Amino acid sequence: MIRASEDNEFYELSSPTLLPKASGFLWNEKMMIHMNCRGYAVAQFMQPEPAKYSYAPNLEAKTFMQPEQPYYAHHPGRFVYVKDEETGEVFSAPYEPVRVPADRYTFAVGKSSIVWKVECGGVLIEMSLSLPKEEAMELWRVKVTNLSQRQRKLSIYPYFTVGYMSWMNQSGEYHEELQAIVCSSITPYQKYQDYAKIKEFSDKTFLLADRKPVAWEVNQEAFEGEGGITGPSALQEEELSKGDARYETPVGVLQYRIRLAPGEEEAYRFIFGPAKNEEQVAQIREDYFIKSNVNGEDGFEAAEREYDQYIREGRGCIEISTPDPDLDQFVNHWLPRQVYYHGQTNRLTTDPQTRNFLQDHMGMSYIKPQVARESFLLALSQQKPDGSMPDGIILHKDAELKYINQVPHTDHCVWLPICLSTYLDESNDYSILEEQVPYADGSGTETVLEHIHKAMKWLAGDRDERGLNYINQGDWCDPMNMVGYKGKGVSGWLTIATAYAFKVWADICEYGGQAEIAKEYRRAAEETNEVINRYLWDGEWYARGITDDNVVFGISTDQEGRIFINPQGWSLLSGAADEEKREKLMRAVREQLETPYGVEKLAPSYTSMREDVGRVTQKHPGSAENGAVYNHAAAFYIYALYSVGEREDAYRLLRKMLPGPTMEDIVQRGQLPVFIPNYYRGAYRQFPRTAGRSSHLFNTGTVPWVYRCLIDGLFGVQGTPEGIAIRPQLPSEWSEAKVRREFRGATLQIEMKREPGVTATEVYANGVYLENGVLSDLKPGTEYKVSVKIPVSE
Ligand code: CEZ
Questions:
Q1: Residue 399: count of CB within 10 angstroms of its CB
Q2: Is the CB of 595 under 6 A from ligand 1?
Q3: What is the ipTM of this complex?
């Protein structure tokens, strides 16, 4: 039912109803499209703010990408209706809107294309979607094959949703000379000041065909008639009526009438996307369908090839072979792609949240370290002279802070050393610390080192008399907005995270030649850890915070929100938790937060508003931050477990981030293992029916942390100033693993094996024993054979 294709290029699903929301996504430099297996699509492009060209049927709110998007009959989609002209029978590929069960069906999510094969009544429809590298447009191929033993007379109707474009102005018509449907609109606005911006928008939606259709329809209502979208009346006529839309909802439908002998096929190509004007559509037609290059390729083919190349550039730096083939598949093929997507697109925002931006580029350190470097410098150039970081990083001159970035959060500074440390581990580029960077107000420049000192001082200063960090209207947890809005409430997690940030920064300072300063930060971390243990330890685990009214929460006497994951894991990182506390809090997590789908962010989920905590308690119990298996938080915890050598719990939870391996688990999650979603539903003990269900939202800070868990934890192949430290933490159920690690220009072929007689892990590089497992003086362009001998029981 689901499996990786033989060449590992695709992940395939053989039913449109088993996981009805199964999906894949493609992106390029300007756009993103999320396609589900049944033909529904969510696409947006940047101009520079996110905009649509295929709209919902009614006025859509502009918002950030949301989890658990509902699909419905008129949801934007890309379909092909197929009519047998002799029998009048109609089906649609890939499945919506007619919903005729196919005789054979495959939905294959690839890295640079999404492909369907749908066979119904002896007709095979193959559809594929790809993108060009730079431009906002979809490249579609549709192939029709007669698999039956008789001559077939068919009508094929590719259908592209245009939808409700604008309440001010919308229309559409077919242009003979372009062989295209072009729909026009004006983005609604009211202030005359906006006109200058609006007039530059690509407010048209076009559907360009490489082959001339016999007929078309541009009027949604006329197309559907009384039959509706599942059985459009227009299909009952011999030919579509060649209609247009005049302040009516437009649609892009074309008709091809074909006669196919047994075995015969016909192929079509379409381009669908936004455009500024008809001239641009004409140019696209010329570039993609008419002109060809020296290799005889036209622009369409060349674009598909270039796009594939672009996606391949996002390769990770490890390739693994373990006893768990599903993990291998995900880590080798899909995880780096998702990390790359974040680093390359910044989640299709022009003002990414500062913590997201920094963590996304922490991930990019493994893929394109140069991009990560530039991003860290950019973020620091927006730091205020008092050391605080803004809530979002402005990426475009016209961008402004929107949505959540208008709400003050106090955690942004902690991510600076934490994310930078990964970049340094990978690149060893300590010269970045000496880089001169301006401040947001233009008040001169200082080195990166000074910038981060200021950030750390800001964190040390933004505390109450007890030494606990203020939360204001939120920390990592966006919607925890009412703990401290009166100016008194503090964040337990942030205090702990600050201690950890001090420690990480101390290490960086030391390697950067500032041993004295490093000592100060270590002392500050220790003092913070003492404060944490004095005010936040609840006996079995750490509290989440203390409200404006001095009420400690996230503790055993709370009916709801009794335990939160973040303070537990981060206290392992900061060193606040000694061994006894570690055991206790790990037990509490296992008992109260762990589920078959991973570890929940908090439990029990809140079922009603807690006014001294905030809107997080108003989210549906078990969704998002209110007690879902929020993978970002789960990844922190797993990372923390590895940091203290708790390999068994770490691996068990890491594995739970992926759907499978059992079919039952995959069905419950409803998602293909081609990305990690931001959450799986939690509240397992309250609402088991929905627990495990994927949010299908692939924007998440989870993935760089999962990569770090693999590099620093599970396989233990982390960079150090001297070279690379080989310290695997394989789960006891594995007797061996192989890792190919690309590192600072060298390649390491590492074989890890449990061997009888070995009492402590031994590491050899090209046969030579390595002290502490550290391989130093690596030469770029060289391949090293590393063998790791691990005790049988460990
Ligand atoms: O967004 C994420 C943020 O992008 O939530 C995380 C936070 O650390 C990330 O920076 C945890 O709060 O405003 C809301 O209520 C939204 O739910 C966001 O908090 C959340 C969404 O899941 C979007 O991904």
A1: 16
A2: no
A3: 0.96
